[in-house]
Structure prediction request, 280 residues.
Amino acid sequence: MNRTITTRKLETIEEMRLVQSLETTVWGSEPIPVHQTYTAITNGGLMLGAFDGETIVGFSYGFTGFANGKTYLCSHMLGIHPDYQLMGIGKTLKEEQRTYAIEMGYDLITWTFDPLESRNAYLNVSKLSGICSTYLENWYGEMEDGLNKGLPSDRFKIEWWIKSERVEERWVPTIDRFDRPFPVGKSEQGNPMLNFNEEEIPTNSAGIEIPIPEHFQVIKKSEPQLALDWRLKIRTIFQTLFREGYALVNVNRTTTGVHYYQAVKKNTIPLNTSERGEDE
Prediction:
């Protein structure tokens, strides 16, 4: 079936209630109170909705953030109805968010996501040209929804410099070869497993590829201990690389069941901002 999806800015109490119903469908948890979302969007925040006819099928929600003397848009939630995923709606909502944010005077949007969710990684870093140099350990504490239950809630913080050369020109590094220092094997059930020596994490390479499983939720269900192993090892790798000045700029997708983050030194990325080379 061909569907025409439209997007628009949401501004009323009634539209906030529409978003609540979709939140419950997507995450199976209590939605954000309407009084909070409505207050946020009337004070520098932004709520966008995606619709199939009159039915809401996706939304993005952000509010004003402030740190180190700088104001930015903190994009807190992006949700797509399960029946409408893999249709490019998330990317469309983010592009609309960028357009509105520029009109509102922002030049930076930030948000968080699970480092081991490869689909989100590809959207955030490769398609949208965000960068990441901040690892947030167990950021939300213990979470009980279906996607997050059972593991520390580690997150990446994305920086989306929406008026930079990196975003406008879709800048990518011109490196002949990325090093792959972290070998990946197979578990007894055939899932990818990460093998590495913590003392051998490179810190002077021009470009490094770091593996993550293509289907992390499958590993969580079939081998929860292996999922925890991925979480803890990836945490160590990225905390080390970020301390050494690296940032993520791309996701290299393969057909092996493993995808690879690509990292370069952050000070080589054209962000066109006084914040260049510094974490927000």
About this structure: Helices lie at 13-27, 34-41, 89-103, 118-127, 165-168, 216-222, 224-243. The radius of gyration is 19 Å.
